[in-house]
Amino acid sequence: MVLSIYAAAMVFLPIAAASLVFLWHAFRSKWSDHPYPPVAATMIGHILNFKRVHDFYTDHHYRYKTYRLAYPTHSYVYTTDPANVEHILKTNFTNYGRENFNHEIMEDLLGDGIFTVDGEKWKQQRKLASFEFSTKMLKDFSSVVFRKSAVELSKILLEASRTKQTVEMQDLFLRSTMDSISKIGFGVEMNSLSKSNSGPEASFTRAFDTANSMVLWRYLDIAWKLKRYFNIGSEAIMKESIRTVDDFVYKIIQSRRQEISAQNSSEKPDILSRFISLSEKEPEKFSDKYLRDILLNFMIAGRDTTAVTLSWFFFLLCKNPGVEEKLLQEIHDVVMENESGSLQESISMFSQCLTHRVLDKMHYLHASLSETLRLYPAVPVDAKHVDSDDILPDGYRMKKGDLVNYVPYSMGRMEYLWGVDAKEFRPERWLENGIFQSQSPFKFTAFQAGPRICLGKEFAYMQMKIVAAVLIRFFKYEAVTGKEVTYRPSLTLHMNEDGLNVHVNCRSDW
C-alpha cells in the first residue's frame, strides 16, 4: 500500500508541478526586458519522449533556434545558434562549466575526470592529456594498434562472408575500439574481438554501456536521488553497473602498477603507465580512484565515440552505394598495393600501406566521416551549467543554475546552417576542388570547440580512416532488411540493441 502511494506520488506530483512551472516560466518570459528563451515543453514531454529524445529536441529546433524545457527547479535551455555556441564554449567559457549539477549527475560513472570537472583539476588533466596527444610516440604507437585492429576485424568479416552469416557491425566496432583503447590507454591486451560475449571484458562493456544510459536518464528523472537513496529502479541498476565497472578498472590499475614496479621502468607508450609514473612523484594527486576517473573519461572519449561513428558511417554507406563506390575509387587511387598470396595476407599488407601521408590524401573519406558526424554526432547533446546570469548573443537571458545545451544532432539537421539538403548524406559539401574544407567548430560541433575542443580529434580520424579503408577495400555490405536502425538514448549516440546487421561479401577482385 505504501509503495502504491509512493508510486502514484512519483507520477502525479511531477505532472502538477510541471504544469505550474510551465505557466510561471511562460509568464516570466513574456514580461522580461531580456526575455528567457520560449518554453517549448515541460519535464513531462521530455520524459515521455526519452526513447526519441534527440529527435524531440530537433522537432522544437525547427521552430526555435533557442528554447527551454521547463522543470520545477530550473530550466534546460537548448540552442543551435552558432553565435550562442561560440559564446558558451569560448567567449564566456568560464561562466559555463561542468561542475555543480553536471558533476553530481555524472560523478558515479566518470568521477573527477576531464568531462566532469572545472578549475585546477580540469587544467591539470587537460595539460597532461595535451602533452601526451602531441607526442610522436603515442601517434606512432596508436597507428600500429589501429592497423592491427582493422586486420582483426577483417578476419571476422572474411569468415562471415565464407559462411554467409550476418554480422552485427556496432558490436564488432565496440569490441574493436575496446581493444584499441585498452592497449593505448591501459597497456592491456583485451582481445575482445577473439573472445565470447561472456567474459569479464564483456561484462565490463555491458555495465559501462548501461551506466552510460542511466547517466542520461538522470537528467530527466527528478527523483533519481531518492531512488539512489533507496537503491530502487534505475538507480539500483546504476549501482550494480558501477560496481562491475570499478572491479574491472581497479584490477587493471593495480596490475599495471605491479608491472611497472617489477620492471622498475615506466617507459611504456600507454597512457596509464605515464600517469602512474606521475603518481609516483605526486601520490597525493594520483590515487587509484583518480586514475580510475581519468581512464573512464578517456574510454568514453576514445572507445564509444569512434565505434558509434563507424557504425553510423557503414549504415549510411549501405543506404548510399554511390558514396561507397567513390570511396573505393579513392582508395585505389591513393594506396599503392603490393601483390601477395592469400586474401588475408593482402589485407595485412594493405593495412601497412596506410601511413599518415597516405591517409592525409584521402579527402573524400575524411569528408564522408565528417558528414557522418554532422548527421550522427557521437555526442548528440552537451550540457553546461550556468554559473551566473548572462545574456546570449541572440538576446535571451540565462539564469544562474540553469543547464544550457548546444545540440550537435539538431544542428546537423538545420537548413539555415547546411542548406535545403541538410538531411541528406552528401560528403561533397565538405570538398572544394576535391580538397577537404573544414567548417567552423561552432557550426560543426562534433568535437566541441574553444578551450575544451577534443584533444583526440586527429587520433579519432586516423583510427576511423584506417578501419574504413581496410573494410571498404576488401568487402561489400548490404543491410539486413526488416530491422529498423535507431539510436539508444545515452551520453553517446549508440544504435539500439539490434545494432547494424549486414550481409558481408568479399569484393569481386578477390
Structural description of this entry:
- This is Cytochrome P450.
- Its cofactor is heme.
- This protein has 510 residues and is of the alpha+beta class.
- It is built from 20 helices and 13 strands.
- The strands form four sheets. A six-stranded mixed β-sheet has the order 1-2-3-9-6-4, with helices on both faces.
- Strand 7 (390-391) and strand 8 form a beta hairpin.
- Helix 7 (136-163) runs antiparallel to helix 8 (169-186), helix 7 runs parallel beside helix 20 (457-474) and helix 10 (224-230) packs across helix 11.
- The longest helix has 32 residues, at 288-319.
- The protein is globular, with a radius of gyration of 23 Å.
Number of strands: 13
Give the biggest beta sheet: 6 strands, mixed
Task: Count up the helices.
Answer: 20
Helix content: 55-70%
Q: Given the C-alpha coordinates, what overall shape results?
A: globular
Instruction: Output mean pLDDT.
Output: 87
- What gap, in angstroms, lies between the N and C termini? 68 Å
Rg over C-alpha atoms, rounded to the nearest angstrom: 23 Å
Quick take:
InterPro entries: Cyt_P450 (IPR001128), Cyt_P450_E_grp-I (IPR002401), Cyt_P450_sf (IPR036396). Its cofactor is heme. The protein contains 20 helices and 13 strands.
Write the layout of secondary structure elements.
Layout: H1 2-31, E1 39-42, H2 43-48, H3 53-61, E2 66-70, E3 75-79, H4 82-91, E4 96-97, H5 101-110, H6 119-133, H7 136-163, E5 167-168, H8 169-186, H9 200-218, H10 224-230, H11 233-263, H12 271-281, H13 288-319, H14 321-334, H15 343-352, H16 356-360, H17 363-375, E6 382-386, E7 390-391, E8 397-398, E9 403-406, H18 408-411, H19 415-418, E10 431-432, E11 435-436, H20 457-474, E12 475-479, E13 501-506
Parallel strand pairs: 1-2, 3-9
Antiparallel strand pairs: 2-3, 4-6, 5-13, 6-9, 7-8, 10-11, 12-13
